[in-house]
Design goal:
Elements: H1 8-15, H2 19-26, H3 34-50, E1 61-66, H4 71-86, E2 91-96, H5 101-114, E3 118-121, H6 127-138, E4 143-146, E5 156-159, H7 162-177, E6 183-187, H8 193-209, E7 215-220, H9 225-238, E8 244-247, H10 252-262, E9 269-273, H11 277-284, E10 290-293, H12 296-309, E11 318-320, E12 324-326, H13 336-346
Parallel strand pairs: 1-2, 1-3, 3-4, 4-5, 5-11, 6-7, 6-8, 8-9, 9-10
Antiparallel strand pairs: 10-12
Helix pairs in contact: 1-2, 1-3, 4-12, 4-13, 5-6, 7-8, 9-10
Length: 347
């Protein structure tokens, strides 16, 4: 559960002490009186009894995610709403144009202008985004990237170790195809660091353990279903006997439909990311073999925890969620998928 520990400002307001004194008490530093310790303890108890809804200084936390980026992103938004409501944390969820750095920058700037208490967002690797994030960090606004991060920015991140996820996909693809190609790779776009890392990891695993397995083509789909269908269809028209397809990002529906139409009855092993209602059906129908999954509820919970706990002293934290390998045989182990779908319908 997200921590709702009072901020230093809350404790100082209730106790009548300065923020500096409260900080010294909380961190067991010398130079504080027994009375100050008692006042801080009493203030924390009072705030806990009142609940987070009585904390006037807690503020509003923002979540920024790409629009029309697939069911997994919708699940992530629902997970943020669920955990924020559960812990009575005020929040705003904003959707921006997918793979558009300017749209993301405008949303980040709007959060800063509105006086946000912290922002969780899916990052794009772009100079304008980096500049905006740097300006916000200089203003001590807590920032957490989710699913896809920014390198060397000193910003917290919650999500997969995407290179390891890609290596996992590559290792499994090599086993499934018995080291025989060709393999097609569909990735969403160069602006997602996560996709670059997954593709690199995938190739790295194949070079290490299955050096003879050929990667026929790498195509950019912009995380769009129709684009994925068109790009994979072009590949299949040249070589209808693909041994496998690795879908790095969204667009898996388009890839499955292209295989169904153009593969000429031959079977291709398909590996993709994120368990959703669609990929679950594909697994059960044997149209996919493996889903590399990241728990969106865990990502939302950890990201909110980072934002709330970093309200006083923003700092860089890394919260990696576990890489789950989902097949048709263990789908029942991921029941929170139904919980998120129900929450989406109700809200």
């Amino acid at each position: 559960m997200v921590s709702t520990r009072p901020r230093i400002q809350d404790i100082a307001r209730v106790s009548g002490l300065s923020s500096a004194t409260v900080d010294r008490v909380l961190n067991s530093r010398p130079g504080v009186s027994a009375k100050a310790v008692d006042l801080v303890r009493d203030a924390i108890q009072k705030l806990a009894e009142n609940g987070p809804e009585e904390r006037s200084d807690l503020g509003v936390y923002d979540i920024i995610l790409p629009r029309n980026a697939g069911l997994s992103t919708e699940y992530l938004a629902a997970a943020f709403r669920y955990h924020a409501d559960l812990c009575k944390v005020q929040h705003r969820v904003t959707f921006v144009e997918r793979l558009n750095p300017q749209s993301l920058c405008r949303a980040l700037q709007a959060c800063a202008e509105q006086g946000t208490s912290g922002v969780a967002f899916q990052a794009l690797e772009d100079p304008t985004v980096r500049d905006t994030v740097s300006q916000m960090a200089n203003r001590n606004i807590p920032l957490v990237t989710v699913v896809s991060d920014l390198s060397s920015m000193g910003v917290s991140y919650v999500g997969l170790d995407n290179r390891a996820a890609g290596r996992t996909a590559g290792y499994l693809m090599g086993l499934l195809t018995r080291g025989a190609g060709p393999i097609a790779v569909l990735w969403g776009g160069h602006l997602y660091r996560a996709h670059d890392e997954r593709e690199f990891g995938f190739r790295s695993a194949l070079r290490t353990d299955f050096p003879n397995l050929e990667i026929l083509d790498v195509t950019c789909t912009q995380d769009d279903t129709e684009e994925a269908y068109e790009r994979l269809s072009e590949v299949l028209k040249r070589d209808p006997k693909l041994a496998g397809v690795y879908c790095v990002g969204a667009g898996i529906i388009g890839a499955i439909n292209a295989l169904k139409r153009h593969a000429g009855g031959s079977s291709s092993f398909v590996i993709g990311h994120n368990l959703t209602a669609n990929t679950r059906d594909f697994l059960l129908q044997r149209r996919m073999e493996v889903v590399i999954h990241q728990d969106m509820t865990a990502i939302a919970e950890k990201a909110l925890q980072f934002l709330v706990s970093g309200a006083d002293k923003p700092r860089s934290l890394r919260g990696e969620v576990s890489i789950s390998i989902v097949t048709r045989e263990n789908i029942s182990n991921h029941l929170n998928l139904d919980m998120l779908r129900d929450y989406m319908v109700k809200h």
